[in-house]
Write a structure and sequence with these properties.
The chain is mainly beta. The protein has a single domain, classed as Maltoporin, Chain A. It has a 22-stranded antiparallel β-barrel. A hairpin with a 2-residue loop joins strand 8 and strand 9.
Protein backbone atom coordinates (compact mmCIF):
# COMPACT_ATOMS: atom_id res chain seq x y z
CA UNK A 1 0.00 0.00 0.00
CA UNK A 2 1.70 3.21 -1.06
CA UNK A 3 1.35 6.01 1.42
CA UNK A 4 0.55 9.57 0.43
CA UNK A 5 2.67 11.72 2.73
CA UNK A 6 1.87 15.26 3.71
CA UNK A 7 3.96 17.91 1.97
CA UNK A 8 3.87 20.10 5.07
CA UNK A 9 2.51 23.23 3.37
CA UNK A 10 -1.15 23.55 4.24
CA UNK A 11 -2.81 20.19 4.78
CA UNK A 12 -1.69 18.17 7.79
CA UNK A 13 -3.97 15.31 6.82
CA UNK A 14 -2.64 12.01 5.55
CA UNK A 15 -4.31 9.57 3.21
CA UNK A 16 -3.60 6.15 1.83
CA UNK A 17 -4.58 4.28 -1.29
CA UNK A 18 -4.89 0.53 -1.50
CA UNK A 19 -3.04 -0.45 -4.65
CA UNK A 20 -2.02 -3.79 -6.13
CA UNK A 21 1.65 -4.70 -6.39
CA UNK A 22 2.86 -3.42 -9.74
CA UNK A 23 5.98 -2.86 -11.83
CA UNK A 24 7.73 0.41 -12.63
CA UNK A 25 5.12 2.06 -14.89
CA UNK A 26 2.59 1.94 -12.07
CA UNK A 27 5.17 3.29 -9.65
CA UNK A 28 5.94 6.05 -12.14
CA UNK A 29 2.30 7.06 -12.16
CA UNK A 30 2.15 7.02 -8.37
CA UNK A 31 5.20 9.24 -8.16
CA UNK A 32 3.64 11.62 -10.64
CA UNK A 33 0.59 11.84 -8.41
CA UNK A 34 2.23 12.17 -5.07
CA UNK A 35 3.80 9.39 -3.76
CA UNK A 36 15.26 15.82 -24.77
CA UNK A 37 22.94 22.01 -36.58
CA UNK A 38 26.10 23.27 -37.49
CA UNK A 39 29.12 21.04 -37.57
CA UNK A 40 32.21 21.76 -35.46
CA UNK A 41 35.42 21.65 -37.36
CA UNK A 42 37.50 20.17 -34.56
CA UNK A 43 36.65 17.10 -32.50
CA UNK A 44 39.49 17.43 -29.98
CA UNK A 45 37.99 19.88 -27.54
CA UNK A 46 40.66 19.19 -24.93
CA UNK A 47 43.15 21.04 -27.15
CA UNK A 48 40.87 24.06 -27.69
CA UNK A 49 41.35 27.31 -25.80
CA UNK A 50 38.40 29.00 -24.07
CA UNK A 51 38.30 31.59 -26.85
CA UNK A 52 38.01 28.77 -29.39
CA UNK A 53 35.36 27.02 -27.28
CA UNK A 54 33.37 30.26 -27.14
CA UNK A 55 33.24 30.16 -30.95
CA UNK A 56 31.49 26.78 -30.97
CA UNK A 57 28.31 27.10 -33.02
CA UNK A 58 25.11 26.29 -31.08
CA UNK A 59 21.65 26.10 -32.61
CA UNK A 60 19.23 25.46 -29.73
CA UNK A 61 18.96 29.02 -28.42
CA UNK A 62 17.86 30.82 -31.62
CA UNK A 63 17.22 27.89 -34.00
CA UNK A 64 20.09 29.13 -36.11
CA UNK A 65 23.85 28.81 -35.77
CA UNK A 66 25.47 31.33 -33.44
CA UNK A 67 28.59 31.47 -31.32
CA UNK A 68 28.19 30.07 -27.82
CA UNK A 69 29.64 33.35 -26.53
CA UNK A 70 26.78 35.28 -28.22
CA UNK A 71 23.86 33.06 -27.14
CA UNK A 72 21.56 35.01 -24.76
CA UNK A 73 20.51 32.05 -22.61
CA UNK A 74 21.76 29.81 -19.85
CA UNK A 75 23.27 27.22 -22.17
CA UNK A 76 25.96 24.68 -21.32
CA UNK A 77 27.59 22.56 -24.02
CA UNK A 78 28.72 19.00 -23.29
CA UNK A 79 31.20 18.12 -26.01
CA UNK A 80 31.92 14.68 -27.39
CA UNK A 81 35.37 14.91 -25.84
CA UNK A 82 33.79 15.68 -22.45
CA UNK A 83 31.71 12.52 -22.74
CA UNK A 84 34.68 10.36 -23.73
CA UNK A 85 36.85 11.61 -20.89
CA UNK A 86 34.06 11.23 -18.32
CA UNK A 87 33.70 7.50 -18.96
CA UNK A 88 29.91 7.86 -19.21
CA UNK A 89 28.23 4.70 -20.50
CA UNK A 90 24.72 6.11 -21.10
CA UNK A 91 23.01 9.32 -22.07
CA UNK A 92 21.76 10.09 -18.52
CA UNK A 93 25.29 9.59 -17.18
CA UNK A 94 26.61 12.05 -19.76
CA UNK A 95 24.00 14.61 -18.69
CA UNK A 96 25.53 14.67 -15.20
CA UNK A 97 28.29 16.79 -16.77
CA UNK A 98 25.86 19.70 -17.19
CA UNK A 99 25.91 21.82 -14.00
CA UNK A 100 22.53 23.36 -14.92
CA UNK A 101 20.70 20.01 -14.67
CA UNK A 102 19.52 17.96 -11.71
CA UNK A 103 20.24 14.30 -12.52
CA UNK A 104 19.26 11.71 -9.91
CA UNK A 105 19.49 7.98 -10.53
CA UNK A 106 16.39 6.24 -9.15
CA UNK A 107 17.49 2.67 -9.83
CA UNK A 108 19.24 0.67 -12.54
CA UNK A 109 16.59 1.60 -15.12
CA UNK A 110 15.24 5.01 -14.23
CA UNK A 111 16.41 8.57 -13.71
CA UNK A 112 14.82 11.80 -12.52
CA UNK A 113 16.23 14.57 -14.71
CA UNK A 114 15.15 18.19 -14.67
CA UNK A 115 16.32 21.79 -14.72
CA UNK A 116 15.31 24.40 -12.15
CA UNK A 117 13.27 22.05 -9.99
CA UNK A 118 10.13 19.91 -10.37
CA UNK A 119 12.27 16.79 -10.45
CA UNK A 120 10.55 13.40 -10.27
CA UNK A 121 10.35 10.12 -12.17
CA UNK A 122 7.55 11.52 -14.31
CA UNK A 123 9.22 14.88 -14.94
CA UNK A 124 7.23 16.80 -17.54
CA UNK A 125 8.83 20.23 -17.94
CA UNK A 126 11.99 19.37 -19.87
CA UNK A 127 12.03 18.94 -23.66
CA UNK A 128 14.58 16.45 -25.01
CA UNK A 129 15.60 16.09 -28.67
CA UNK A 130 17.97 13.72 -30.44
CA UNK A 131 19.05 15.13 -33.81
CA UNK A 132 15.86 17.19 -33.94
CA UNK A 133 13.57 14.28 -33.00
CA UNK A 134 11.45 15.08 -29.93
CA UNK A 135 11.51 12.09 -27.58
CA UNK A 136 8.94 13.04 -24.94
CA UNK A 137 5.88 10.80 -24.72
CA UNK A 138 2.30 12.17 -24.85
CA UNK A 139 1.45 9.60 -22.17
CA UNK A 140 2.82 11.83 -19.38
CA UNK A 141 4.62 14.69 -21.22
CA UNK A 142 8.00 13.39 -20.07
CA UNK A 143 10.81 11.10 -21.17
CA UNK A 144 11.19 7.36 -20.70
CA UNK A 145 14.93 7.40 -20.08
CA UNK A 146 15.11 3.59 -20.28
CA UNK A 147 14.54 3.81 -24.06
CA UNK A 148 16.74 6.81 -24.99
CA UNK A 149 20.14 5.72 -26.22
CA UNK A 150 22.76 6.80 -28.71
CA UNK A 151 26.26 5.63 -29.52
CA UNK A 152 28.09 8.11 -27.33
CA UNK A 153 31.21 7.94 -29.51
CA UNK A 154 29.14 9.54 -32.30
CA UNK A 155 27.85 12.48 -30.24
CA UNK A 156 29.23 15.82 -31.41
CA UNK A 157 27.75 17.84 -28.57
CA UNK A 158 24.79 18.11 -26.22
CA UNK A 159 23.34 21.60 -25.87
CA UNK A 160 21.69 21.97 -22.46
CA UNK A 161 19.51 25.06 -22.01
CA UNK A 162 18.07 25.71 -18.57
CA UNK A 163 15.09 28.01 -18.76
CA UNK A 164 12.01 28.30 -20.96
CA UNK A 165 12.19 27.52 -24.67
CA UNK A 166 8.53 27.49 -25.62
CA UNK A 167 8.73 30.16 -28.35
CA UNK A 168 11.12 28.11 -30.47
CA UNK A 169 10.42 24.56 -29.29
CA UNK A 170 6.77 24.55 -28.19
CA UNK A 171 4.86 23.34 -25.15
CA UNK A 172 6.73 21.23 -22.57
CA UNK A 173 9.93 23.26 -23.03
CA UNK A 174 9.07 24.89 -19.69
CA UNK A 175 12.22 24.61 -17.60
CA UNK A 176 14.76 23.59 -20.22
CA UNK A 177 15.77 21.97 -23.50
CA UNK A 178 18.29 19.17 -24.05
CA UNK A 179 19.41 18.85 -27.67
CA UNK A 180 21.61 15.84 -28.47
CA UNK A 181 23.45 16.38 -31.77
CA UNK A 182 25.40 13.56 -33.37
CA UNK A 183 28.28 13.93 -35.81
CA UNK A 184 27.80 13.75 -39.54
CA UNK A 185 28.55 10.51 -41.35
CA UNK A 186 31.53 12.19 -43.01
CA UNK A 187 33.05 12.80 -39.56
CA UNK A 188 32.79 9.12 -38.57
CA UNK A 189 34.60 7.35 -41.38
CA UNK A 190 36.41 4.08 -40.81
CA UNK A 191 35.67 1.51 -38.15
CA UNK A 192 35.36 1.48 -34.39
CA UNK A 193 35.09 -1.46 -32.01
CA UNK A 194 34.48 -0.83 -28.32
CA UNK A 195 33.85 -3.26 -25.48
CA UNK A 196 33.77 -2.88 -21.73
CA UNK A 197 32.86 -4.71 -18.56
CA UNK A 198 32.59 -3.86 -14.90
CA UNK A 199 31.27 -5.19 -11.64
CA UNK A 200 27.72 -4.00 -12.44
CA UNK A 201 27.46 -3.64 -16.21
CA UNK A 202 28.94 -4.55 -19.57
CA UNK A 203 28.50 -3.34 -23.12
CA UNK A 204 29.89 -3.67 -26.62
CA UNK A 205 29.53 -1.53 -29.75
CA UNK A 206 30.74 -1.27 -33.32
CA UNK A 207 30.51 1.41 -35.98
CA UNK A 208 31.64 1.58 -39.59
CA UNK A 209 31.56 4.58 -41.90
CA UNK A 210 32.33 4.87 -45.59
CA UNK A 211 31.76 6.84 -48.79
CA UNK A 212 28.87 6.46 -51.21
CA UNK A 213 29.27 6.44 -54.99
CA UNK A 214 27.12 9.57 -55.35
CA UNK A 215 29.42 11.63 -53.16
CA UNK A 216 27.67 11.10 -49.84
CA UNK A 217 28.85 9.35 -46.71
CA UNK A 218 27.29 6.75 -44.42
CA UNK A 219 27.76 4.99 -41.13
CA UNK A 220 26.14 1.98 -39.49
CA UNK A 221 26.38 1.00 -35.86
CA UNK A 222 25.22 -1.55 -33.34
CA UNK A 223 25.48 -1.79 -29.58
CA UNK A 224 24.45 -4.06 -26.75
CA UNK A 225 24.28 -3.19 -23.04
CA UNK A 226 23.55 -5.11 -19.85
CA UNK A 227 22.98 -3.66 -16.37
CA UNK A 228 22.79 -5.65 -13.12
CA UNK A 229 20.12 -5.24 -10.45
CA UNK A 230 20.64 -2.76 -7.66
CA UNK A 231 19.90 -3.47 -4.00
CA UNK A 232 17.31 -1.64 -1.99
CA UNK A 233 18.05 0.33 1.14
CA UNK A 234 16.42 -2.41 3.23
CA UNK A 235 18.81 -5.00 1.76
CA UNK A 236 16.44 -6.72 -0.66
CA UNK A 237 17.07 -7.04 -4.37
CA UNK A 238 15.46 -4.40 -6.54
CA UNK A 239 14.79 -6.53 -9.68
CA UNK A 240 15.63 -3.55 -11.88
CA UNK A 241 18.38 -4.87 -14.16
CA UNK A 242 18.02 -4.59 -17.92
CA UNK A 243 19.53 -5.43 -21.27
CA UNK A 244 19.11 -3.59 -24.56
CA UNK A 245 20.26 -4.00 -28.15
CA UNK A 246 20.24 -1.10 -30.63
CA UNK A 247 21.36 -0.59 -34.21
CA UNK A 248 21.12 2.26 -36.67
CA UNK A 249 22.53 4.18 -39.61
CA UNK A 250 23.09 7.69 -40.90
CA UNK A 251 23.80 9.01 -44.39
CA UNK A 252 24.70 12.58 -45.39
CA UNK A 253 24.98 14.32 -48.76
CA UNK A 254 25.70 17.88 -49.76
CA UNK A 255 28.10 20.76 -49.54
CA UNK A 256 28.28 24.10 -47.79
CA UNK A 257 25.11 25.38 -49.49
CA UNK A 258 22.77 22.39 -49.44
CA UNK A 259 22.71 19.35 -47.15
CA UNK A 260 20.52 16.29 -46.82
CA UNK A 261 20.60 13.56 -44.17
CA UNK A 262 18.72 10.32 -43.60
CA UNK A 263 19.07 8.35 -40.39
CA UNK A 264 17.29 5.73 -38.32
CA UNK A 265 17.52 3.52 -35.25
CA UNK A 266 15.88 0.35 -33.96
CA UNK A 267 16.12 -1.17 -30.49
CA UNK A 268 14.77 -3.92 -28.28
CA UNK A 269 15.23 -4.58 -24.60
CA UNK A 270 14.04 -6.33 -21.48
CA UNK A 271 13.54 -4.67 -18.09
CA UNK A 272 13.44 -6.74 -14.92
CA UNK A 273 10.39 -6.14 -12.72
CA UNK A 274 9.52 -7.49 -9.24
CA UNK A 275 7.06 -10.09 -10.56
CA UNK A 276 7.76 -10.27 -14.30
CA UNK A 277 9.89 -8.91 -17.11
CA UNK A 278 8.89 -5.97 -19.27
CA UNK A 279 9.63 -5.67 -22.98
CA UNK A 280 10.49 -2.45 -24.80
CA UNK A 281 11.15 -1.93 -28.50
CA UNK A 282 11.01 0.80 -31.06
CA UNK A 283 12.28 2.30 -34.29
CA UNK A 284 12.59 5.71 -35.86
CA UNK A 285 13.42 7.16 -39.26
CA UNK A 286 14.14 10.83 -39.91
CA UNK A 287 15.24 13.02 -42.78
CA UNK A 288 16.55 16.57 -42.74
CA UNK A 289 17.09 18.92 -45.68
CA UNK A 290 18.55 22.40 -45.42
CA UNK A 291 19.69 24.99 -47.96
CA UNK A 292 21.52 28.29 -47.54
CA UNK A 293 21.31 31.08 -50.09
CA UNK A 294 23.92 33.65 -50.95
CA UNK A 295 21.72 36.47 -49.63
CA UNK A 296 21.86 35.06 -46.09
CA UNK A 297 18.48 33.32 -46.13
CA UNK A 298 18.12 29.62 -45.31
CA UNK A 299 15.41 26.98 -45.44
CA UNK A 300 15.14 23.63 -43.69
CA UNK A 301 12.68 20.75 -43.60
CA UNK A 302 12.68 18.01 -40.96
CA UNK A 303 10.43 14.97 -40.95
CA UNK A 304 10.47 11.80 -38.88
CA UNK A 305 8.50 8.74 -37.88
CA UNK A 306 8.91 7.28 -34.39
CA UNK A 307 7.43 4.08 -32.95
CA UNK A 308 7.71 2.93 -29.34
CA UNK A 309 6.28 -0.25 -27.84
CA UNK A 310 6.19 -0.87 -24.07
CA UNK A 311 4.74 -4.05 -22.53
CA UNK A 312 4.54 -4.22 -18.74
CA UNK A 313 2.57 -7.35 -17.75
CA UNK A 314 -0.07 -6.67 -15.14
CA UNK A 315 0.09 -2.90 -15.63
CA UNK A 316 -0.29 -1.79 -19.24
CA UNK A 317 1.10 -2.09 -22.74
CA UNK A 318 1.38 0.74 -25.24
CA UNK A 319 2.10 1.12 -28.93
CA UNK A 320 2.76 4.72 -29.93
CA UNK A 321 3.34 5.92 -33.49
CA UNK A 322 4.29 9.54 -34.16
CA UNK A 323 4.66 11.42 -37.44
CA UNK A 324 6.29 14.85 -37.22
CA UNK A 325 7.09 17.49 -39.81
CA UNK A 326 8.80 20.88 -39.32
CA UNK A 327 9.53 23.79 -41.64
CA UNK A 328 11.82 26.71 -40.90
CA UNK A 329 12.92 29.69 -42.96
CA UNK A 330 15.46 32.34 -42.09
CA UNK A 331 14.71 35.45 -44.11
CA UNK A 332 17.29 37.69 -45.69
CA UNK A 333 18.22 40.41 -43.21
CA UNK A 334 16.46 43.69 -43.87
CA UNK A 335 17.99 46.69 -42.16
CA UNK A 336 18.17 45.95 -38.46
CA UNK A 337 15.91 42.90 -38.63
CA UNK A 338 16.81 39.22 -38.87
CA UNK A 339 13.65 37.11 -38.90
CA UNK A 340 13.12 33.37 -38.49
CA UNK A 341 9.71 31.79 -39.11
CA UNK A 342 8.57 28.21 -38.89
CA UNK A 343 5.70 25.76 -38.61
CA UNK A 344 5.29 22.21 -37.35
CA UNK A 345 2.72 19.42 -37.41
CA UNK A 346 2.77 16.37 -35.15
CA UNK A 347 0.38 13.42 -35.24
CA UNK A 348 0.24 10.51 -32.80
CA UNK A 349 -1.60 7.18 -32.73
CA UNK A 350 -1.57 5.88 -29.15
CA UNK A 351 -2.97 2.41 -28.39
CA UNK A 352 -2.94 1.29 -24.76
CA UNK A 353 -3.71 -2.20 -23.55
CA UNK A 354 -5.27 -1.63 -20.14
CA UNK A 355 -5.16 -3.89 -17.11
CA UNK A 356 -7.48 -4.37 -14.18
CA UNK A 357 -5.32 -2.12 -12.00
CA UNK A 358 -5.13 0.92 -14.27
CA UNK A 359 -6.50 2.14 -17.56
CA UNK A 360 -6.37 5.03 -20.00
CA UNK A 361 -9.90 5.72 -21.22
CA UNK A 362 -10.38 5.79 -24.11
CA UNK A 363 -7.69 3.19 -24.68
CA UNK A 364 -6.95 4.31 -28.24
CA UNK A 365 -6.59 7.95 -29.22
CA UNK A 366 -5.28 9.99 -32.12
CA UNK A 367 -3.76 13.35 -31.23
CA UNK A 368 -2.35 16.23 -33.22
CA UNK A 369 -0.32 19.33 -32.46
CA UNK A 370 0.05 22.25 -34.89
CA UNK A 371 2.13 25.38 -34.41
CA UNK A 372 3.63 28.42 -36.10
CA UNK A 373 6.34 30.68 -34.73
CA UNK A 374 8.24 33.81 -35.66
CA UNK A 375 11.24 35.49 -34.08
CA UNK A 376 12.79 38.83 -34.97
CA UNK A 377 16.33 39.70 -33.90
CA UNK A 378 16.66 43.49 -33.99
CA UNK A 379 20.11 45.07 -33.99
CA UNK A 380 19.48 48.22 -31.94
CA UNK A 381 23.14 49.11 -32.43
CA UNK A 382 26.41 47.25 -33.00
CA UNK A 383 26.45 45.92 -29.41
CA UNK A 384 22.77 45.65 -28.46
CA UNK A 385 20.25 43.12 -29.77
CA UNK A 386 16.54 42.76 -29.00
CA UNK A 387 15.02 39.36 -29.77
CA UNK A 388 11.21 39.18 -29.85
CA UNK A 389 9.36 36.00 -30.66
CA UNK A 390 6.09 34.16 -30.29
CA UNK A 391 4.61 30.74 -31.00
CA UNK A 392 0.97 29.78 -31.44
CA UNK A 393 0.45 26.09 -30.77
CA UNK A 394 -2.79 24.12 -30.94
CA UNK A 395 -3.41 20.82 -29.13
CA UNK A 396 -6.52 18.67 -28.86
CA UNK A 397 -6.96 19.19 -25.12
CA UNK A 398 -6.75 22.95 -24.54
CA UNK A 399 -6.85 24.44 -28.01
CA UNK A 400 -4.62 27.40 -28.82
CA UNK A 401 -1.66 28.26 -26.57
CA UNK A 402 0.31 31.52 -26.76
CA UNK A 403 4.06 31.30 -26.06
CA UNK A 404 5.81 34.70 -26.30
CA UNK A 405 9.33 35.71 -25.26
CA UNK A 406 11.65 38.69 -25.33
CA UNK A 407 15.43 38.79 -24.92
CA UNK A 408 17.91 41.64 -24.72
CA UNK A 409 21.61 40.93 -25.33
CA UNK A 410 24.30 43.52 -24.67
CA UNK A 411 27.73 42.69 -26.06
CA UNK A 412 29.97 44.56 -23.62
CA UNK A 413 33.03 43.31 -25.50
CA UNK A 414 33.96 40.35 -27.66
CA UNK A 415 34.51 38.34 -24.47
CA UNK A 416 31.59 39.60 -22.34
CA UNK A 417 27.83 39.26 -22.79
CA UNK A 418 25.07 40.59 -20.52
CA UNK A 419 21.55 39.38 -21.28
CA UNK A 420 18.05 39.29 -19.85
CA UNK A 421 14.86 37.53 -20.90
CA UNK A 422 11.14 37.32 -20.11
CA UNK A 423 9.06 34.37 -21.29
CA UNK A 424 5.68 32.73 -20.98
CA UNK A 425 5.46 29.01 -21.58
CA UNK A 426 3.12 26.13 -20.76
CA UNK A 427 3.07 22.41 -20.11
CA UNK A 428 0.11 21.07 -22.08
CA UNK A 429 -2.04 18.24 -20.63
CA UNK A 430 -1.01 14.65 -21.17
CA UNK A 431 -3.05 11.46 -21.24
CA UNK A 432 -2.12 10.89 -17.60
CA UNK A 433 -3.82 14.18 -16.69
CA UNK A 434 -6.95 13.63 -18.77
CA UNK A 435 -7.52 9.90 -19.43
CA UNK A 436 -6.16 7.99 -16.41
CA UNK A 437 -8.45 5.65 -14.44
CA UNK A 438 -7.38 3.40 -11.59
CA UNK A 439 -8.59 0.78 -11.27
CA UNK A 440 -9.99 0.19 -14.72
CA UNK A 441 -13.59 -0.10 -13.50
CA UNK A 442 -15.64 2.14 -11.21
CA UNK A 443 -15.52 2.97 -8.38
CA UNK A 444 -12.23 4.70 -9.23
CA UNK A 445 -9.55 5.33 -6.65
CA UNK A 446 -7.96 7.87 -9.01
CA UNK A 447 -9.20 9.42 -12.24
CA UNK A 448 -8.04 11.97 -14.76
CA UNK A 449 -9.82 15.26 -15.29
CA UNK A 450 -11.34 16.13 -18.66
CA UNK A 451 -11.11 19.82 -17.72
CA UNK A 452 -7.42 19.72 -16.74
CA UNK A 453 -5.79 22.80 -18.24
CA UNK A 454 -2.20 23.66 -19.17
CA UNK A 455 0.30 24.47 -16.45
CA UNK A 456 1.68 28.00 -16.97
CA UNK A 457 5.11 29.50 -16.23
CA UNK A 458 6.12 33.17 -16.46
CA UNK A 459 9.88 33.52 -16.19
CA UNK A 460 12.42 36.34 -15.94
CA UNK A 461 16.17 35.72 -16.30
CA UNK A 462 19.37 37.75 -16.03
CA UNK A 463 22.68 36.32 -17.20
CA UNK A 464 26.32 37.22 -17.71
CA UNK A 465 28.97 35.26 -19.62
CA UNK A 466 32.64 36.19 -19.93
CA UNK A 467 36.10 35.03 -20.90
CA UNK A 468 38.12 37.74 -19.13
CA UNK A 469 41.49 36.08 -19.80
CA UNK A 470 42.63 33.29 -22.12
CA UNK A 471 42.74 31.03 -19.04
CA UNK A 472 39.36 31.82 -17.41
CA UNK A 473 35.77 31.46 -18.57
CA UNK A 474 32.54 31.68 -16.56
CA UNK A 475 28.76 32.10 -16.76
CA UNK A 476 26.23 33.28 -14.15
CA UNK A 477 22.43 33.24 -14.47
CA UNK A 478 19.77 34.32 -11.96
CA UNK A 479 16.10 33.49 -12.54
CA UNK A 480 12.65 33.83 -11.04
CA UNK A 481 9.63 31.89 -12.29
CA UNK A 482 5.96 32.09 -11.31
CA UNK A 483 3.82 28.99 -11.92
CA UNK A 484 0.07 28.62 -12.01
CA UNK A 485 -2.38 25.75 -12.51
CA UNK A 486 0.18 23.15 -11.45
CA UNK A 487 -1.06 19.59 -11.13
CA UNK A 488 -2.61 18.60 -7.81
CA UNK A 489 -4.48 15.53 -6.57
CA UNK A 490 -7.88 16.44 -5.19
CA UNK A 491 -10.15 14.42 -2.90
CA UNK A 492 -13.65 13.86 -4.27
CA UNK A 493 -16.64 14.19 -2.00
CA UNK A 494 -17.85 10.84 -3.34
CA UNK A 495 -14.52 9.21 -2.45
CA UNK A 496 -11.37 8.69 -4.43
CA UNK A 497 -9.05 11.21 -6.03
CA UNK A 498 -9.07 13.30 -9.21
CA UNK A 499 -6.32 15.18 -11.01
CA UNK A 500 -6.63 18.96 -10.57
CA UNK A 501 -4.92 22.30 -11.26
CA UNK A 502 -5.00 23.77 -7.75
CA UNK A 503 -1.29 24.36 -7.09
CA UNK A 504 0.72 27.52 -7.73
CA UNK A 505 3.98 29.13 -6.62
CA UNK A 506 7.39 30.30 -7.66
CA UNK A 507 11.03 29.29 -7.92
CA UNK A 508 14.07 31.52 -7.55
CA UNK A 509 17.63 30.49 -8.15
CA UNK A 510 21.09 30.93 -9.52
CA UNK A 511 23.25 28.71 -11.73
CA UNK A 512 26.88 29.32 -12.47
CA UNK A 513 29.89 27.52 -13.88
CA UNK A 514 33.50 28.36 -14.63
CA UNK A 515 36.66 26.84 -16.11
CA UNK A 516 40.31 27.59 -15.47
CA UNK A 517 43.21 26.47 -17.67
CA UNK A 518 45.80 26.00 -14.94
CA UNK A 519 48.49 24.72 -17.34
CA UNK A 520 48.61 23.53 -20.93
CA UNK A 521 47.88 20.02 -19.65
CA UNK A 522 45.47 20.74 -16.77
CA UNK A 523 41.98 22.22 -16.87
CA UNK A 524 39.72 22.78 -13.83
CA UNK A 525 35.94 23.25 -14.08
CA UNK A 526 33.31 23.98 -11.45
CA UNK A 527 29.56 24.46 -11.32
CA UNK A 528 27.03 25.51 -8.67
CA UNK A 529 23.24 25.85 -8.51
CA UNK A 530 20.94 27.15 -5.77
CA UNK A 531 17.17 26.83 -5.86
CA UNK A 532 14.35 28.02 -3.61
CA UNK A 533 10.84 26.89 -4.44
CA UNK A 534 7.73 28.35 -2.82
CA UNK A 535 4.80 26.19 -3.88
CA UNK A 536 1.37 26.25 -2.27
CA UNK A 537 -2.08 24.80 -2.70
CA UNK A 538 -4.80 27.19 -3.79
CA UNK A 539 -7.85 27.99 -1.72
CA UNK A 540 -10.38 25.21 -2.07
CA UNK A 541 -7.84 22.47 -2.71
CA UNK A 542 -8.45 19.18 -0.94
CA UNK A 543 -5.07 17.72 -1.92
CA UNK A 544 -3.94 15.59 1.08
CA UNK A 545 -0.35 15.42 -0.08
CA UNK A 546 0.67 19.04 -0.24
CA UNK A 547 3.29 20.25 -2.69
CA UNK A 548 5.70 17.31 -2.54
CA UNK A 549 4.03 15.75 -5.59
CA UNK A 550 5.43 18.56 -7.76
CA UNK A 551 8.98 17.32 -7.33
CA UNK A 552 11.79 16.71 -4.89
CA UNK A 553 14.62 19.17 -5.35
CA UNK A 554 17.95 19.86 -3.64
CA UNK A 555 18.48 23.40 -2.32
CA UNK A 556 21.91 23.43 -3.95
CA UNK A 557 24.31 21.30 -5.98
CA UNK A 558 27.95 21.69 -6.92
CA UNK A 559 30.53 19.88 -9.00
CA UNK A 560 34.28 20.12 -9.52
CA UNK A 561 36.10 18.53 -12.43
CA UNK A 562 39.80 18.10 -13.14
CA UNK A 563 40.97 17.17 -16.66
CA UNK A 564 44.67 16.36 -16.72
CA UNK A 565 46.93 15.09 -19.52
CA UNK A 566 49.60 13.20 -17.59
CA UNK A 567 51.80 12.68 -20.62
CA UNK A 568 51.42 11.90 -24.29
CA UNK A 569 48.68 9.26 -24.53
CA UNK A 570 47.85 9.20 -20.80
CA UNK A 571 45.04 11.19 -19.21
CA UNK A 572 43.36 11.39 -15.81
CA UNK A 573 39.91 12.89 -15.15
CA UNK A 574 38.32 13.30 -11.73
CA UNK A 575 34.85 14.67 -10.97
CA UNK A 576 33.38 15.51 -7.57
CA UNK A 577 29.61 16.05 -7.43
CA UNK A 578 27.58 17.11 -4.39
CA UNK A 579 23.79 17.14 -4.05
CA UNK A 580 22.10 18.64 -1.01
CA UNK A 581 19.45 16.69 0.88
CA UNK A 582 16.05 16.19 -0.72
CA UNK A 583 13.18 17.31 1.52
CA UNK A 584 10.18 15.05 0.81
CA UNK A 585 10.59 12.15 0.67
CA UNK A 586 13.78 12.80 2.60
CA UNK A 587 17.01 11.68 0.95
CA UNK A 588 20.32 12.49 2.69
CA UNK A 589 22.85 14.75 0.99
CA UNK A 590 25.62 12.92 -0.81
CA UNK A 591 28.96 13.59 -2.46
CA UNK A 592 30.28 11.32 -5.18
CA UNK A 593 33.58 11.02 -6.99
CA UNK A 594 34.12 9.60 -10.46
CA UNK A 595 37.59 9.01 -11.87
CA UNK A 596 38.85 7.84 -15.25
CA UNK A 597 42.34 6.89 -16.41
CA UNK A 598 42.81 6.64 -20.18
CA UNK A 599 45.86 5.21 -21.93
CA UNK A 600 46.47 5.17 -25.68
CA UNK A 601 48.31 1.89 -26.10
CA UNK A 602 48.72 2.75 -29.78
CA UNK A 603 47.49 5.50 -32.03
CA UNK A 604 44.36 3.46 -32.79
CA UNK A 605 43.92 1.59 -29.48
CA UNK A 606 42.75 3.07 -26.16
CA UNK A 607 42.30 1.43 -22.76
CA UNK A 608 40.36 3.19 -20.01
CA UNK A 609 39.42 2.40 -16.43
CA UNK A 610 36.50 4.31 -14.91
CA UNK A 611 35.39 4.29 -11.29
CA UNK A 612 32.04 5.78 -10.29
CA UNK A 613 30.67 6.70 -6.86
CA UNK A 614 34.03 6.00 -5.27
CA UNK A 615 33.53 7.83 -1.96
CA UNK A 616 31.07 5.30 -0.53
CA UNK A 617 29.96 1.75 -1.10
CA UNK A 618 26.47 2.89 -2.10
CA UNK A 619 24.02 5.73 -1.56
CA UNK A 620 20.46 6.71 -2.39
CA UNK A 621 19.71 9.53 -4.83
CA UNK A 622 15.93 9.45 -5.09
CA UNK A 623 12.88 7.67 -3.71
CA UNK A 624 11.22 6.62 -0.50
CA UNK A 625 13.01 4.82 2.31
CA UNK A 626 13.45 1.93 2.99
CA UNK A 627 12.56 0.46 -0.43
CA UNK A 628 14.51 2.91 -2.63
CA UNK A 629 17.53 1.64 -4.53
CA UNK A 630 21.08 2.21 -3.38
CA UNK A 631 23.34 3.36 -6.22
CA UNK A 632 26.56 1.34 -5.87
CA UNK A 633 30.17 2.20 -6.50
CA UNK A 634 31.45 0.60 -9.68
CA UNK A 635 34.54 0.00 -11.80
CA UNK A 636 34.41 -0.30 -15.59
CA UNK A 637 37.21 -1.27 -17.98
CA UNK A 638 36.85 -0.36 -21.67
CA UNK A 639 38.90 -1.03 -24.79
CA UNK A 640 38.34 1.04 -27.97
CA UNK A 641 39.93 0.21 -31.32
CA UNK A 642 39.82 2.62 -34.25
CA UNK A 643 40.10 0.64 -37.47
Amino acid sequence: MPELSDGGDRNPRRASITWPTSPFPLALLLISLPASSAAISSSNFADMSFEELAKIQVTSVSKKAERLADAPASVFVITGEDIRRSGAASLPEALKLAPNLQVAQINAQNYAISARGFNNAAGNKLLVLIDGRIVYTPLFSGVFWDTQDVMLEDVERIEVISGPGGTLWGTNAVNGVINVITRSAEATQGGLLAAGAGNHNKDAAFRYGGKLDNGGHFRVYGKQSDQDNTSRENGSGASDGWNRTQAGFRSDWGDGQEQFSLQGDAYTGKLDQPTSQADISGANLSTHWQRKSGDGSATSLLAYYDRTVRNFPGAYNETLDILNGEFQHTLQSVGQHSIVVGASYRYAWDRVGNSASLAFLPANVQQKWMSVFAQDEIALNSDLRLILGSRLEHNDYTGLEFLPSGRLAWKLSDQRLLWTAVSRTVRAPSRLDRDLSAPAQAPFVLSGNTTFRSEVANVIELGYRATPTPAVSYSVTAFHAKYDYLRSIEVLSTGGFVVGNLMEGSTTGIETWASYQATNAWRLSAGYTALKDRLRLKAGSTDPIGTSAAGNNPAHTWQLRSTFNISSGKELDITLRHVAALPDPAVPAYTTMDARFGWKLRRDLELSITGQNLLDRNHAEFGTSPTRSEIPSSVFVKLSWQI
